[in-house]
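Appendix B. One record, verbatim.
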Amino acid sequence: MAKNWAKNTSAQILEDFLDYLTVEKGASPHTVAGYQRDLERFLTLMNLTTTPLSEVTTDLINQFLTLLSTGTEAQRPLAPSSIARSRAAIRALFRYAIENNYLVADPTEDADQKKQGLSLPKAIPLEEVGAMLAAAGQRPAPIGLRDTALIELLYGTGARISEVIALSPDDLFLEGDYPHVRLFGKGRKERLVPLGSYAVRSLQTYLTNGRLELLARAKRNYGEHPLFLNKRGAPLSRQSAWEIIVKTAVEAKCQAEVSPHTLRHSFATHLLEGGASIRDVQELLGHASVTTTQIYTRVSMNTLREVHAASHPRANL
C-alpha cells in the first residue's frame, strides 16, 4: 500500500532521494549534484515543486522531455546526452518512490525512454578491504571495535547500509554450525545471510567489549536498541555510518572513492570471481530479480579480459 503523499511534496521526496543517493548508494558529489540539477529543473519547469509526486503523469514527463529538446524562452535546446541524463534521473526518482512504498504506479514506464549504456559497479581489491579493517582496528575501543564489526558485516554479507543500521542484536545468530544474520530488505522482505568466521569474531568482540560500553553512555532508553550505536550510545545514523566508511577508506589509502555500497559491490564481485553462481549471489544480495544481479557478471568478465590480455601469449598482437 502506498504511503499518504499528502504530507510529502515532490520537493521533499527529492531531498530524501538525494540523501539516499549520497549515503546508501555512495554516489559521488558530482553525480548527486547532476541528479539534483536535472530533477529540480523538472519540478520547477513543470510547476511540480509543491505537488504530490503521485499526481505526476506520463504526459507531464513527456512534455518536459519535449521542452528540453525544443527549448524555451529561457533555455536553449539541450543535447541528446543531456536529455537522456534528465530522463534517467526522473526514472531513478520514481523507482525510489516505488521501492519505498510512496507510489504504486510508475508514470515513467510509458514515458519516452531510450536505453543508455549500463554503468558497472565498482569493487575494491581484497587487499584494500584488509587495509580498511586494519585502519579501523587502530582506533581506540569501543569505537574501533564498532567500526571493525561494521566493515566486516558490510563486506561479509553484502548488506545495504540501511539494512545494517536497522539490525538489533536479536538479528544475529553467532553460535552453532550455521552463524548467520537476519536482514530486512526492501519492502521488509526477510533473508538470512551466512556469516563468516571473521565477521563472527568481530561481532562477538564488539558485543562483549564495545557495545556494552556505548550502551552505558545512552542518556535515555531508546527502546529496542539497535546493534550499532554512536559514541553517545544513541542509534548510529545512516549518515554517520557512511562517514565512518569514507573516513576509513581515506585512512587506508584506497585508490578509489569508497562508500558502504562499494563494499556491497565488492562482496558480490568477489563471490562471482570465487565461483559462486549468479542465483546464489542474487539470494544473498536480496535482489528481487536476477536481472539486477547480472550486472556483476559483466564486472567479472571485464576482470577475465584483463587477465587474458595480460597473460595469454597471443592476446595482444
